[in-house]
Design brief:
Blueprint lengths: L10 E3 L7 E2 L2 H4 L8 E2 H5 L3 H4 L2 E3 L4 E5 L9 E5 L4 E4 L2 E3 L3 E3 L14 H8 L7 E5 L3 H12 L3 E5 L7 H4 L1 H7 L1 H5 L3 E3 L4 E5 L2 E4 L4 E3 L2 E4 L3 E3 L16 E3 L11 E3 L4 E5 L3 E4 L3 H6 L1 H8 L14 E6 L2 E7 L7 E4 L8 E6 L12 E10 L2 H13 L2 E4 H5 L11
């Protein structure tokens, strides 16, 4: 907002009582970072200097949007009982970890406070059971096992990262666990969580000193209570600028939003790239400025370091999409997976290219730049014959 020329009053409400920080290192660097990666140092953004009223430990608990009855401003109620009037409201409230009822004995890893508490517990010989083989579960399992903990990961799906990558790629990821000294149990539903372990649906008891629930996160939007529309995921549907549909003067960014992308359609929040790039078009829209015609349509991007491997995902893999592999998973060297657009699978344009909805790069740092640039330019189209051949440059396959 300030960079776009706004000189009015900015109020910032936070929930954790600390300045903004980068969340990915919480799991990836749990034991090597003893304090959060503060954004003031990483991005040069000091919110205390930029905003007029900063309340880092007084989150919003209610929103009453302005209506056409003479009331000119939105009203935001905070946890302390303050009532704040605003001409514009931007929801950047993030997400909350899923912890089902009855799982109170399980820890979660979502905030800097969670990371600090878990860091104090991880030690050689610790019996750690992680429920969920998604991003956080895999990253933490690798870090803890490398520190000498006895780690078991319990996953309800047939493969790790099945929801994110699908079963084909998930099956190639599964061997990483044993190679990193982690016990992986798949196809196992947890029916009870205790301080000393978990009980599986088949009656198996998995003892533990610490249980971590890593079964996902949901938009932290329950407090909105009908003030704005929510989709089935609990996210706020917004257009390409972050504007909330049907509620003028309210925007949403980041994990709590489902944003319209020009090439991918509705894209759920939670991507690292969304936190970095989505605020600029939102700020321009709040100020009534025209969109930047030269700005790229940034593709969703997620990176992960897990179990001795580096992953970079561009785009959103569709459910049930056909997958084309480059390289041989399980052998030395990197590999990649291309998720074909379900609407065009089996067909190709005149130039032999197929439309791709997502690209996963595994241990292929050299290809990240080329894929990012191609994904940000528009709809990804790939010459699959070239892409399948690891002896040829991947960039030559990107049409």
């Amino acid at each position: 907002m300030r960079r776009q020329g706004f000189t009015g009053t900015l109020t910032l409400l936070g929930a954790e009582g600390v300045a903004p920080y980068d969340r990915p290192p919480l799991s990836k660097e749990l034991l090597t970072r003893t304090e959060p990666a503060w954004l003031e140092a990483e991005l040069g953004v000091d919110v205390v200097a930029l905003a007029d009223d900063v309340r880092l430990d007084d989150p919003a608990v209610g929103l009453l949007p302005a209506v056409e009855d003479g009331r000119l401003a939105h009203v935001v109620t905070t946890r302390s009982g303050a009532r704040l009037e605003a001409d514009a409201v931007v929801l950047a409230v993030g997400s909350a970890p899923v912890r089902p009822a009855g799982w109170e004995a399980a820890r979660v890893l979502h905030s800097a406070a969670d990371a600090a508490a878990l860091r104090a517990l991880v030690r050689p010989g610790l019996r750690l059971t992680v429920v969920g083989a998604g991003w956080i579960g895999a990253e933490l399992a690798g870090v803890a096992a490398a520190a000498g903990a006895q780690v078991t990961v319990v996953e309800a799906g047939a493969t790790p990262l099945e929801r994110q990558f699908g079963p084909v790629v998930g099956a190639h990821v599964a061997p990483w666990y044993a190679a990193a000294g982690v016990r992986l149990v798949t196809g196992a539903a947890v029916v009870e969580v205790r301080p000393d372990g978990v009980l599986l649906a088949d009656g198996t008891d998995v003892p533990a000193d610490v249980v971590l629930a890593a079964i996902g996160a949901r938009p932290a939007t329950s407090w909105l209570d009908g003030a704005v529309p929510l989709d089935a995921r609990g996210a706020v549907p917004v257009d390409a600028t972050g504007a909330v549909e049907g509620v003028p003067g309210v925007w949403a960014v980041g994990d709590c939003a489902t944003r319209e992308h020009p090439h991918l359609g509705r894209v759920p929040g939670g991507h690292w790239s969304a936190a970095l790039h989505d605020p600029e078009p939102t700020a321009r829209a709040v100020l009534g400025l025209a969109p930047d015609a030269d700005a790229p349509a940034h593709a969703p991007y997620v990176f992960s370091q897990q179990l001795g491997h580096d992953l970079a995902l561009f785009g959103v893999p569709p459910q049930g999409a056909e997958v084309v592999l480059r390289g041989e998973p399980g052998t030395p060297g990197g590999w990649a997976a291309f998720y074909l657009d379900p609407g065009t699978a089996g067909t190709a344009a005149d130039d032999g290219a197929a439309r791709v909805r997502a690209v996963l790069l595994v241990d292929s740092a050299r290809d990240v730049g080329a894929v990012r640039r191609a994904a940000n330019r528009g709809a990804l189209r790939v010459d699959l014959d070239v892409a399948r051949d690891p002896g040829r440059r991947l960039r030559d396959a990107l049409v």
